[in-house]
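Q: Here's a chain of 608 amino acids. Please give me its 3D structure as tokens.
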Amino acid sequence: MTVLELVRVEPPAPAPSRRRNGRAGRGTRRQRLTVTLVLAALAVLHAVNLAGWPRWFDDEGTYYSQAWAVQHLGALAPYTYWYDHPPAGWLQLAALTWLPDLLIPGESSLLSGRIVMVGYLLASAGLLYVLARRLGMRHGFALGAMVLWAANPLVLFEGRQIFLDNVALPWLLLAFVLALNRRRHLGLHMAAGGAFAVAVLTKETTAVFAVPLLVALWQGAYRPTRAFTLVGFGAVLSMTGALYLLFALIRGELLPGPGHVSLWDALSFQFADRAPSGSIFDPNGPAGGAYVTFHSWLAHDGFLLLGGVAAGVVALLVRRLRPAGVAVVVCALVGLRPSGYLPQMYVVALLPFCALCLVGLFDHLWRRVRSAPRGRLVAAAALVALTGLAVSFVPVGGWQRAYAQALTEDANDPQYAMADQLAALPPGATIAVDNTYWNDLVEAGRSREDVVWFFKVDHDAAVPRALGDTYEGLDYLVWTQYMADNAGPIVEQAYASSVLVATTGEYGRKVELRRVLDVREVTARREAAAAAVARQVAEARADFDAYLARPSPALPQLTNGQVEAIRTDARQLGLAAVARKYGISRATIEAALRIEPAPDRADALDAR
């Protein structure tokens, strides 16, 4: 037997049908076109009225001002960077916000940041579609998951705002997409570690998705090379994350020490020392805590959140949906801890996986029904029934109101109305503001030393030192409800020593421009107020004395003072004693007692 005879020659594989390739190509092109058109519609939905709704939030200004500091100061923050968050998020903002600033000069700085957020949302939507396909969903269901998430009113509210969570989300979804790549390529699994590291360095709360991402890696890797996959993923994740530690170490701020901030102190505050939010089920919990946060989510929409959490539990039973199910369950359990801190934007990273679980279960049921006898007929009936059931739970009226609010309401009108008043303030005046104003005032030409974020006045040692460690270093306050809820002692003292200059808006949207008085002005105003009170007391006393001296209308032979004295003595001494004391008849005393009591002007005088 020759060597050639030992070699098994396989017959050549049949050439793929041109017709089949053409159909596949046309189908793929149609799918891409559909996804592109849906993304364009979502871009319009999120971009319309972007400057009007929702109302600017202080955190938005904080992250944007840090991006501004990267662009203009070469620093990580306009104030002391205290490691409150890793800086990858606003480094990305700094790299992108220059373009909207260039295209729309003169608009609010925060609008530029929100335009960038629309871009991040579209990136997240596209990656969510790809991830749905990686989880085995058919094109229509994957598209449905993308739309259910991106068009949800709660996502519309959270996704428009300049939050680090929105910046981290596409990196998180990219990590899952790479972990479940169809080629099961080790290099792509390692790249998933890099993407996840960027997500965590953008917003540290995404670290809760480590376990579901490991589940995705376990399922997405070849069994013989799983160990290499996990080691490679962990190595890239660790090395990328270690850059943050190295940064703090080089700056000498890794560990606590005198005269400087530290990464250790920041992590201790974020994960241990921060006041807990309480339970989402406890209405008597901390003010603005987890109960309030959870119900604010439900006010926008509860269908995706609650339905997605329930679907996440069921998705644990479906192997291909298990990574999304584990993500939902783990994220929900962490959020339910009454001893933890629940921020408003925590829900941002949870909702895409809720959509995947909800739509993924429909896709799973569709496949099971289609494989049954008379599959197509049964599947069509089942699809209609399940769709009707799902739609019956959707709060259509609430969604319509939410869309109308998002597309038409101008929640920031009071802030825009105050712009002319702020522009008229004298140059060099020191103004304490929340961070929704900081960026616009600095961009308008005011020195950043003259525009002070109110929070830093009481929480950054360098700021009160520059102000002379007293409220007198402030000239004006732009007072908002957020400042009222979060002001420290120095800012509160400045408010107590200020006078109103102008006001716009009402209720929670009210904005006041107040001038802070110096000590001499405060003393002069107090003395003027005391003098005014003294004049009022003197006038009231003189009026009271004149009243007592006038004859009584009912008993002209007696003055009002005598009538009042007789009435008082009669209650204490008796009629006979009063008659002897005043030398008047018993009948006169009885007549005085029948007179209606006069207003107690003496008490009124004492009250003044």
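Q: Can you summarize the key feature?
A: The mean pLDDT is 86.
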